[in-house]
């Protein structure tokens, strides 16, 4: 079969076009791979949930909540119906808080604008932030803590509660008020289970009359 020069030129041009297209796709696949997909951390939002924190199989805390938002290693809880802190598997404190953040990596439960009431006792504690450390079973207020105990108003710049022993450590700037009387000291320890309080350091006693004279 004899082909004219024009026909040969058309065939050669067509073959060159096909080869060029094939080479282009090979370049895209092998030499210019697509950019990796963005790593977006997963987040999960649940409603009407019960969360339980445990240490060595024993409950430390339990929260009934209407809103749970999980993102990476943190779980944010809002609209909470009931917060319970346990001692030896028994309910020890009832807590009311605006928000809670459970850091699963640090094993910490943070309670914001929290009010704590001891079950079957006249003890109430308020703090802007309370941190429950699940590893050493301590409840810490890194800022000011306000306590109502048997009619006394107690203020402390820092507080640490040992959940297993029931010892409440009041640190720095401790002041106890009983109507017109007040006591100031550097540190105090309150034994919640035995209802005893010990004072440490220099204790300054004041009355409202003395304050007015000053």
């Amino acid at each position: 079969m004899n082909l004219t020069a024009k026909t040969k030129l058309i065939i050669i041009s067509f073959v060159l076009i096909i080869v060029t297209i094939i080479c282009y796709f090979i370049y895209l696949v092998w030499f210019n791979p697509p950019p990796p997909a963005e790593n977006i951390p997963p987040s999960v939002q649940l409603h009407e949930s019960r969360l339980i924190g445990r240490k060595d199989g024993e409950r430390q805390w339990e929260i009934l909540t209407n809103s749970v938002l999980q993102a990476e290693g943190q779980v944010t809880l809002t609209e909470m119906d009931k917060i319970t802190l346990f001692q030896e598997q028994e309910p020890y404190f009832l807590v009311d808080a605006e928000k809670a953040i459970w850091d699963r990596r640090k094993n910490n439960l943070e309670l914001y604008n929290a009010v704590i009431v001891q079950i079957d006792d006249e003890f109430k504690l308020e703090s802007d932030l309370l941190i429950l450390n699940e590893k050493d079973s301590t409840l810490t207020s890194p800022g000011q803590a306000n306590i109502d105990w048997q009619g006394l108003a107690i203020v402390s710049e820092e507080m640490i509660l040992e959940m297993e022993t029931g010892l409440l450590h009041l640190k720095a700037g401790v002041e106890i008020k009983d109507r017109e009387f007040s006591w100031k000291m550097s540190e105090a320890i309150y034994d919640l289970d035995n209802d005893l309080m010990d004072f440490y350091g220099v204790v300054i006693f004041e009355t409202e009359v003395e304050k007015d004279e000053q």
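Residues 112 and 129 are 5 Å apart (CA to CA). The helical segments are 5-30, 208-213.
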